[in-house]
Request: fold
Amino acid sequence: MQAAKRTSIIRPCLQHVTGLKNRKIAAIAALWFASIAAGVEIADAASDDWRVSVIDQVEKLHHVDDANALQIGRFAEIGFQEINSSRLLQERLRNAGFDVKSGVAGMPTAFIATYGKEGPVVGFLAEYDALAGFSQTKDPVRTAIEGKSAGHACGHNLLGSGAVLAAVATKEWITANNVKGIIKVFGTPAEEGGGGKVYFARDGLLDGVDVMMNWHPDSYNGSITKSNLAMIAGKFRFYGYSTHASAFPQNGRSALDGVEAMNMMANMMREHIEEKSRIHYAITQTNKAPNVIPDFAEVFYFVRNPEALKTQQLWERVVKAAEGAALGTGTTVEHEIISGHYGYLANTALARVTHANMLHVGGVEYSESEITFARNITKTFPNSAPDMSRAVQIQPLEINPSDIWTGSSDVGDVSWLVPTNWVRTATYVPGTSAHSWQSVAASNTSIGLKGMHVAAKTMALTAVELMKTPELLDEIRTEFDERRGPGYKYVSLIGERSPPLDYMK
Ligand SMILES: [Zn+2]
Reply:
């Protein structure tokens, strides 16, 4: 906490320096400030040249990835259907000299791209799935694109392209500077509910990776050390007997009654679960006409808790509620686990390296036209927005790995197998929530691209630093082993199921 406090004190000075547009001076100053924040000796300015050249490498390359991010934004393909988006990223990596294997872990839109033969293995996580129901132009007013139903409301068009940009920049830099290292880009489909990364984890495709670079679009810049919630998502399908609802109701058995009885029990259960647990559901299929007793109804449940084991236990209680509901309503029920993942296991040693590098990069500076866009977006918020300067600030590093933020991601499983960082950058206008039309709009503008560059530079710097200084990896590994505990064995929460390739159909 002490280091975090110091960082926040020096931040205004740092912004001033980054505003000079002289990257070398800014980088040297940033290193100095970061050194003070970390309570270490001030580094020799000359030793910082490599950082300037890694950042320059991203600057030289990003026009290709900018075009890809905007194209993937236009494709807006949903989970496991990201055929064109995945192909575009694979082509980019193949053209940059990576060896690409596609269709891995039983997912046609998944891939692994590898470069290098020896040295530390650094992975990069790429996502590229869109969200259904978020068709939106890049304008700062709610406007759907005709004929489109999905949009990148979680900014995954930037996420995938930014990860690839960072990987290619790292490759170019280590090749030019004779640094040993192996780079692996993991193309992971269907983050939004399909849990693509869990299949990489379960099938052993992450074996041998020393450290994972991971980022997500957001409305601020920072490096996260908080955990999040483990989650199990599954569908309950009730079967009844259909009759005319007025003429012969006595002969019918309503599948919807089964769903409603289950939901009532789950809602009563809320009083008797742990505070940080979550249960939510959507009725995804039932009758369309009130005068028909439905013979089929389906409800989709998400169950969450900070711990994977407790999530499983809560899930079992929800399954019991389904069975009880079926018994009482004269219906039958079956369920299918669609996805399940762990909470994020933070690594503070890795977060410190990542954060120091982000300070060198600086945040997102808006042009005049971007300020106008941001003001127009801000006007559409129901509540007052934080100050726009948040986009240029780097949030202080808060070391609190046992704290929880109440989302979930399939990154969780990766983080229990490989030390994984979590960079967030301001690709959205400050105050924007993910999964909103405002986040789709920003993800397809220069604001989104600038945030993506901050992430790519931070990850490329961190990857290069870890390859140049393998002792840092030892420190990261020691913390990783301590946090997992002795004899840790990963068991996925999805059992033996194959990827739910049709879960969005
Ligand atoms: Zn996301």
Q: What stands out?
A: The chain has two domains: 2-224+343-483, 230-341.
